[in-house]
Design brief:
The complex is a heterodimer.
Chain A: E1 3-11, E2 28-32, E3 36-40, H1 47-55, E4 61-67, E5 70-71, H2 77-87, E6 88-91, H3 103-114, H4 119-128, H5 144-156, E7 162-166, H6 174-191, E8 194-199, E9 210-213
Parallel strand pairs in A: 3-8, 3-9, 6-7, 7-8
Antiparallel strand pairs in A: 1-2, 1-4, 4-5
Helix pairs in contact in A: 3-5
Chain B: H1 2-8, H2 14-45, E1 56-61, H3 65-68, H4 79-87, E2 91-96, E3 98-99, E4 103-110, E5 113-120, E6 123-124, E7 145-151, H5 152-166, H6 173-178, E8 180-187, E9 190-202, H7 212-222, E10 232-237, H8 243-252, E11 254-256, H9 260-302, H10 304-312, H11 317-357, H12 367-396
Parallel strand pairs in B: 7-9
Antiparallel strand pairs in B: 1-10, 1-11, 2-10, 3-6, 4-5, 4-8, 8-9
Helix pairs in contact in B: 2-9, 2-11, 2-12, 9-12, 11-12
Classes of the chains: A alpha/beta, B alpha+beta.
């Protein structure tokens, strides 16, 4: 997949609103593979909705979203599954980790589906992000910032054309967000993938090709 | 898969599953057992008579108090009566029972030692009415062996009345066939012996049947002057249910030997009772299925968010449904195996009892019950799998 196109897309909850000033809603937007985008947003402007629309979790929008030239609405369950396994990785704002599994198991549950990274590679990421000692701890006992890093690793153990990160560093300090930005950029570069990051303030320092206001 | 199972097994309620398991086991066992019991017992009631076809009727005259002391109407059929009967539209063929007119006694022995003996008689019907291989149903003076068909009740009388009280072994039909009978015939100044062999048992004939050729030969030899008017006749009809037959028989004061009726009634009740028991079993199975479905619904309800996350990180609906599907199918399979085990255990108990009452009983095949079990298993498992998948699809579509 080389592009994600938003064609006149608008969340249905905004249909009544006439005062929308956005670089994305009701516009023609193309996200290209290999490029890095920052989507800046205020609260309540539909940032997480955008991620949900792209990943196919929600479909309550007007207009269309196209992967290359294929309408996302036309995908069936099998195609969505393949898309989520191979083409688009999403780092959820609410993380969506499994509290009863350990940090390592939360990553493995994804990696055993894709078989994309070795155990050693995963362990290296844990070390780089300073949570190597938490690998075997249940995720529910970790702080939100630590959980954000686990979710990041989970988002990276799959092949992707686009990496969507919904507020990835909201609870991280400078050092860790720097490390995470480097990891993401490196993995995206290796895969030739595009990165779309959303933020409501603090954002990762990356060489953005384009900054869009939602 | 291990991790997915670790996630999804949370909130599994063991008491609920155990409830389902035992209820389903009970239901399944009852269903299989009712079918098996029906099939095992049915042959006892509805045994087809191999020698006399069902569209043959046996007629006799009613014996009244007067006729038994030699007054009143005669109890034999005259030539004229036979002709009249043959002329009826429902009658296809009419044959007479011919009785032996001399003294007969018979002793049975094993290895030449006489075990018991009795006075008796012979009768024959025209060979065409006896449905048996003519090679076996044949007498010639040179062979010196008479084939005999006995009423099945004789065997029952021996097995349950005689053998039981005298500590003698119970006999099956096959064994009786191997026992040689010595028949002694006296009359016309002669006293001679001949060998007899039981070739079968009939549920429909209340007589000791021998080939027509033997009766003809022996009556001519030992009672040449005797009158041989038949007291019973055998009638082949085109349609046994024809009302005209009953009307004619009643008008003439004849009697029809109708031993089929009781067996038919018993079979009907057997079927009714088995059917009711099976319905109860099915009902229990249905309830257990309902318990399982409720349990699964609750389980899916409690694990909905986890399942949604699995779907969002790239698990297919099929792979998310699989653990619960395997769980239910595994339980159903275990239930099936245990039910079959239970069936075999219970069957061996009741078959032991039945065999002591009906030694010649062979019992039904266990295969139909197995097939029914497998069909039930497949149906229930498919329904389970479908419902679970349906729930997952609802989560996929955010419609839960």
């Amino acid at each position: 997949m080389n592009t994600i196109n938003l064609d006149n897309t608008l969340p249905q909850v905004f249909l009544q609103r006439t005062d929308i000033e956005s670089d994305i809603w009701r516009k023609q937007v193309t996200f290209e593979r290999g490029k890095t985008y920052l989507v800046e947003a205020q609260s309540g402007t539909g940032k997480s909705s955008l991620c949900s629309f792209i990943i196919g979790y929600r479909h309550d929008y007007d207009g269309s979203i196209l992967f290359d030239s294929q309408l996302s609405r036309s995908l069936n369950a099998k195609e969505w599954t393949m898309l989520r396994q191979r083409h688009i990785s999403l780092l959820f704002q609410e993380l969506r980790l499994f509290p009863e599994l350990t940090a390592m198991e939360n990553v493995e549950i994804k990696n055993c589906l894709t078989g994309f990274k070795t155990k050693q590679e995963i362990e290296r990421w844990f070390e780089a992000l300073g949570i190597a000692d938490k690998m075997q701890s249940p995720v529910r006992l970790m702080s939100f910032g630590q959980q954000q890093r686990v979710a990041m690793i989970r988002a990276l153990v799959q092949p992707f054309d686009f990496l969507l990160a919904d507020e990835p560093i909201s609870h991280l300090d400078e050092v860790n967000s720097r490390t995470m930005a480097d990891m993401m950029a490196e993995e995206a570069r290796r895969q030739g993938a595009g990165i779309i990051i959303t933020s409501i303030g603090k954002h990762m320092e990356l060489p953005y090709d384009k900054i869009l206001k939602l | 898969m291990r991790l997915v199972w670790k996630l999804l097994r949370r909130h599994i309620s063991l008491p609920q599953l155990a409830g389902f398991f035992f209820a389903n086991l009970l239901g399944m066992t009852i269903v299989l057992l009712s079918l098996q019991f029906y099939r095992d017992v049915k042959p006892v009631f509805s045994e087809e008579d191999g020698f006399i076809r069902p569209d043959y009727l046996i007629l006799s005259k009613r014996i009244s108090a007067l006729s038994s002391i030699g007054l009143g109407s005669v109890s034999t059929f005259s030539e004229k009566e036979m002709d009249e009967l043959s002329a009826q539209p429902f009658a296809k063929r009419v044959g007479a029972f011919t009785a032996s007119q001399y003294k007969v006694s018979c002793s049975m022995g094993i290895n030449g030692v006489a075990q018991f003996g009795t006075e008796m008689f012979f009768e024959s019907v025209p060979d065409a009415f006896v449905d048996v291989d003519l090679q076996k149903w044949h007498f010639s003076e040179e062979d010196g062996v008479v084939p005999i068909i006995l009423p099945k009740t004789y065997l029952a009388i021996y097995n349950f009345g005689f053998a039981q009280s005298q500590n003698l072994p119970k006999l099956s039909e096959g064994i009786v066939g191997m026992v040689e009978m010595t028949i002694s015939m006296r009359g016309n100044g002669l006293s001679e012996y001949i060998k007899g062999r039981v070739i079968g048992f009939s549920t429909r004939l209340n007589t000791i049947l021998v080939p027509e050729s033997f009766i003809r030969w022996s009556n001519a030899r030992y009672a040449p002057d005797a009158d041989t008017e038949p007291s019973r006749i055998i009638l082949e009809v085109s349609n046994p249910a024809d009302d005209a037959i009953v009307n004619y028989i009643n008008a003439k004061g004849y009697e029809m030997e109708d031993d089929k009726l009781d067996a038919g009634r018993m079979t009907f009740f057997l079927r009714l009772v088995s059917g009711i028991v099976m319905l109860v079993g099915l009902f229990i199975s249905l309830l257990s299925f309902y318990i399982l479905m409720l349990s699964i619904y609750l389980l899916v309800e409690k694990n909905t968010e986890k399942m949604r996350t699995l779907l969002l990180i790239g698990y297919s609906p099929a792979s998310v449904a699989l653990p619960y599907q395997l769980l239910t199918i595994g339980m159903n399979a275990l239930v099936l195996l245990l039910a079959i085990g239970g069936l075999c255990a219970v069957r061996s108990i009741y078959m032991g009892q039945l065999l002591s009452v009906f030694p010649q009983m062979s019992g039904g095949n266990i295969l139909p019950a197995l097939m029914l079990g497998i069909v039930l298993f497949a149906l229930v498992s498919l329904a389970n799998a479908y419902v679970i998948r349906n729930r997952i699809n609802k989560i996929w579509n955010n419609k839960d």
